[in-house]
Design a protein that fits this description.
703 residues; alpha/beta; seven-stranded mixed beta sheet; 34% helix
Length: 703
């Protein structure tokens, strides 16, 4: 086990499972993941590989012998009749029959009802009265001649999903983990390897959980295919349901006026609409109207009666175009069905999760470590729905006064959900609260900024907050930073048809502040006023980049500052493993491509030796030296065996010193095994980690 896995098992023994075992046991059993994980938690809660394999075989045998497939229900009923008794795995629900004053059970897959259940069993497993519990049940068959008698007898029942939990124990366990460890535990719980994600990407994954922990929360996520949008809503929780966006009707979702029966919103904590996008999809306008009222007021009407519900809504769908295309030609809601492409509906969404920031799921992204049995976490999240943490920031920060009530509600509900996920016991630091508040504001800002493109009557809003010292934090979305020219377009005016496009370099546009360095990097390089015929070149300055940002390359980031240098020295203590060596090689390629023909460049690396595999490290460096040498770049390196170097920077003999807070390791992991992936071939198609670069000019050139 890793240190984190050992810690997880120590403080949550019996409630965790190794996540890679689920696929090994599922087979063709149409049984929810949370049931499988419960069984694995019972038989495979160990780090001994032999015991794990034995446990896997035990779980497989249990499923093979006792799981009830609906199409085999008649055969199983017959076998129990012939033998007199049998054991089955099924979802068991219980209801009180007031006429007989007795509890009666129903078996979902086996198809039997009115099975008598004793009161003690119901008291121990009260969840059977609400939504049903997957269980291993001992059934007996005893036919009697009396009228209305039921031959089925429940001889014993053992729940195989959480029927109760200790919330205080959960809080005590949370206190043993740092924030970073807790985030990684939650990421492993939903099935992903935390090492494959940066901090921001992890928080975006956890945003998908907010509908489970926050009542009446409205989330939308649109993005490319294959990013796992529906994963969290399909089998993660027994309290959520995933339905196709085109299959829902008013009676199914809300209420049937004919029968008076309430729909899905009365039975589920979270309802997710899969495949929600599609401009040509046929949608019932009456459904949209009721949906808008429910999203705003948590209520809907049945005739003259008004009913309320607490179900949260998640709308997930695919986009067809790139973010830049949508911002230039339409907006980020362009794929919504026509009847949902309505400012009144969109305005009721609390947050827009940017699906384009989430990478396509690859094999190495799946978890192999330990996480909560998802049914355990599902019960915790349901318990937390009763709490309200929406104002936990108020002692530290104040939202801008221009933020409307509806915008404020969206921000606060997202913030409350994140606080309950990460800090159920409180204890967040001011910086952690700042981080979550910023992300919550960003989610609502993405909705509102697009609304202002769709409907010009919406007023401008300053999405910012102020701390107690008066420091103002202005929140930006990542696509706003990447595409400032298109992001701040407004709708076509009704009179004249002119498109309003603010100057992205103007401070009031909301774009990043214009500086010589940022202007140069983003292609905004107007002539100097003093020398109108001479373009402004690289200049001293400081620039920051957000996690998941794209469009960045060593050529744009460093190339202009390296032009003309005959000697370049890179100091970076971590040039060891393959992806770090590849980054180094790509920087050397930039040097080779930009240097004048007929000139050579000396490039020196100062790094630290790899304590785990110095031979491999040296071998990589030798290959790089031999590969780049014919291109006119003389590459040498030196090891600082004292391991005292921490700074990362580039120094040229032309007087530039470039401070790199992450060194060359600025790109997130790409699928380097896929030769047809653009991110494999070109840096600007890769997402980056959060990093900063400072450009300093150190006196006159020495060349």
């Amino acid at each position: 086990m890793s240190d984190l896995d050992a810690k997880i098992n120590e403080h949550f023994a019996g409630f965790v499972v190794r996540k890679d075992l689920v696929k090994a046991v599922k087979g063709n059993a149409i049984v929810p993941t949370y049931v499988l994980e419960y069984l694995l938690g019972q038989y495979c809660a160990t780090d001994d590989e032999a015991s794990i394999q034995t446990g896997i075989e035990t779980v497989k045998e249990i499923l093979h012998r006792h799981y009830v497939h609906r199409n085999e229900a008649g055969l199983i009923r017959s076998n129990i009749r012939e033998k007199g008794r049998g054991k089955v795995i099924d979802k068991v629900s219980v209801a009180l029959n007031e006429k007989t004053d007795a509890y009666e059970a129903s078996f979902a897959n086996l198809g039997i009802k009115k099975v008598l259940v004793d009161s003690d069993t119901v008291k121990k497993n009260q969840k059977m009265l609400v939504s049903g519990v997957w269980s291993i049940a001992d059934l007996e068959y005893d036919h009697k001649e009396e009228a209305n008698s039921v031959p089925w007898v429940l001889a014993g029942l053992k729940p195989i999903q959480m029927s109760s939990f200790d919330f205080d124990a959960y809080l005590a366990g949370r206190a043993k983990f740092t924030t970073e460890e807790w985030i990684d535990l939650l990421i492993q719980t939903i099935g992903f390897n935390p090492d494959a994600f940066g901090r921001r990407s992890k928080l975006l994954q956890l945003l998908r959980l907010i509908p489970y922990v926050e009542r009446n929360y409205n989330l939308i996520e649109l993005g490319p295919k294959g990013t796992g949008k529906s994963h969290i809503f399909s089998e993660f929780s027994p309290h959520g349901i995933l339905i196709s966006g085109g299959e829902v009707t008013v009676p199914k979702l809300f209420v049937s006026n004919a029968s008076g029966k309430i729909g899905l919103v009365g039975y589920w904590d979270t309802i997710a609409f899969d495949e929600f996008a599609g401009r040509q999809k046929k949608v019932d306008k009456a459904l949209v109207d009721i949906m808008k009222n429910y999203l705003a007021n948590k209520s809907f009407s049945r005739g003259v009666e008004t009913l309320g519900a607490e179900a949260s809504m998640a709308f997930i769908g695919n986009t067809k175009h790139s973010v830049a295309y949508m911002l230039k030609h339409t907006d980020l809601f362009e794929e919504l069905p026509e009847k949902y492409y309505d400012s009144a509906f969109i305005d009721r969404l609390h947050a827009y999760l940017p699906g384009w920031e989430i990478d396509v799921i690859r094999g190495e992204m799946f978890a192999t470590g330990y996480g909560f049995i998802v049914d355990y976490l599902a019960e915790v999240l349901r318990h937390l729905r009763g709490q309200d943490r929406s104002l936990d920031y108020r002692d530290l920060f104040t939202l801008d006064a221009s933020i409307s009530t509806r915008d404020r509600d969206g921000v606060q509900k997202t913030f409350s959900g994140l606080m309950k996920l990460l800090f159920p016991d409180g204890g967040a630091t001011p910086e952690e609260i700042r981080e979550l508040l910023t992300l919550a504001i960003e989610g609502r800002k993405r909705v509102k900024d697009q609304l202002m493109r769709i409907d010009s009557t919406y007023p401008e809003v300053e999405f910012s907050f102020t701390d107690k010292t008066g420091r103002v934090t202005k929140v930006q979305t990542l696509e706003e930073r990447e595409h400032p020219r298109w992001y701040h377009r407004r709708s076509v005016e009704e009179m004249g048809g002119a498109v309003i496009e603010p100057d992205p370099t103007h401070p009031s546009s909301g774009a990043p502040a214009s500086t010589p360095v940022r202007d140069f990097l983003e292609g905004r390089n107007p002539p100097s006023s003093a020398e109108p015929d001479v373009p402004r070149g690289p200049a001293p300055g400081h620039v920051t980049f957000a996690e998941n940002q794209k469009g960045i390359s060593f050529d744009a980031l460093l190339g202009p500052w390296l032009d003309g240098a005959a000697e370049i020295t890179l100091t970076d203590p971590y040039i060891r493993v393959y992806h770090q060596m590849r980054n180094l090689m790509e920087l050397l390629e930039v040097v080779a491509l930009r240097k004048p023909d007929g000139e050579d460049v000396q490039f020196r690396l100062i790094t630290t030796p790899d304590p785990d595999d110095l031979e491999r490290q040296t071998g990589y460096l030798e290959q790089i030296r031999d590969g780049i040498s014919p291109l006119g770049v003389e590459f040498t390196w030196a090891f600082d065996a004292t391991s005292t170097i921490h700074a990362r920077h580039l120094v040229t003999n032309t007087g530039w010193k470039i401070l790199l807070d992450r060194g060359l390791d600025v790109f997130q992991r790409a699928d380097l095994n896929n030769g047809f992936s653009p991110a494999n071939r070109h840096q600007r198609y890769r997402q980056v980690k959060a990093f900063e670069v400072t450009y300093l000019q150190e006196g006159a050139a020495t060349r």
